[in-house]
């Protein structure tokens, strides 16, 4: 069994994971698009404008991990990863890429940067696309911060969603959260560097706590580290001010949360919360930053942890077949996502036809290939 999807809560990070040996920094950032990792997909026929290379080495299968594994206490390490093999930030074939992404993130994510990005992307009114279109764009994003995934993020979306669906068959809104949670990574296709899109998040404006990955070897050139206002336990925050009042490092979590809010998704508070904080590992898994949390945060924490089991442990080389799964998820989109038409007078003239479910997102300049894909 290739996956290690389980019902037990993920353990706290161990000392080994917290103090990794820094890997050498590669000078050139690898490209965002890794065509060699993209499989030929049946779903590609729906979107002929984007040419998907076909030389993938991974297997595309109809279903994800074996559901019987969901309740199995330990993984079958013979054919796949066991729980302890995930999130290895010490060594592994992708370590240079992962370390370099975090080095840049921890150097450049400052209070000032985060404030600017929140303003820049807060409006969500410059472009429209359907949710499925946004999801399909993730065919072109390989997350460079992730030591466990070297295939396009669209597959990870279906893996997560299907894992949740198997374990929580009665909660269809939760299935949809699995599908949507990483859509914010489309920011990597509009010129945002990956360090401003992917990876674990952390609060800026206060002392960086111990469970942040590569904490000891990646923050030395961050200008906020020498600002005394930002280097106490609370920094610019009040005790137990609530995470909604904390400036998190900018990335796909906060962006997708804003998109969901702006588009008035009819999902429960838990759904919004899971999307917004799913990458905040130093909190939900590391147990840090509790001094900033209020009661709401603590009430939501079990949901974030529940989500995390599927987000993390469904990552495996057996890839689902999106074209087979799309009808089910399209029905959930129909149920929970308003169609967005006529809600936003500032939407551009080249928005998709009125019949399409629309997502208002904020992108000033899409690469030509993306525009063609969305609007032809
Ligand atoms: O939530 C996950 C998690 O934080 C991973 O460690 C990171 O690599 C991914 O970018 C993110 O989506
Ligand atoms: Fe994510």
UniProtKB/TrEMBL annotation:
InterPro entries in the record: Inositol_oxygenase
UniProt xrefs under SUPFAM superfamilies: HD-domain/PDEase-like
Region (Disordered) location: 1-50
Pathway(s) per entry: Polyol metabolism; myo-inositol degradation into D-glucuronate; D-glucuronate from myo-inositol: step 1/1
Catalytic activity: myo-inositol + O2 = D-glucuronate + H2O + H(+)
Homology family: Belongs to the myo-inositol oxygenase family.
Protein name: Inositol oxygenase
Originating organism: Podarcis muralis
Origin organism lineage: Eukaryota, Metazoa, Chordata, Craniata, Vertebrata
Encoding gene, per UniProt annotation: MIOX
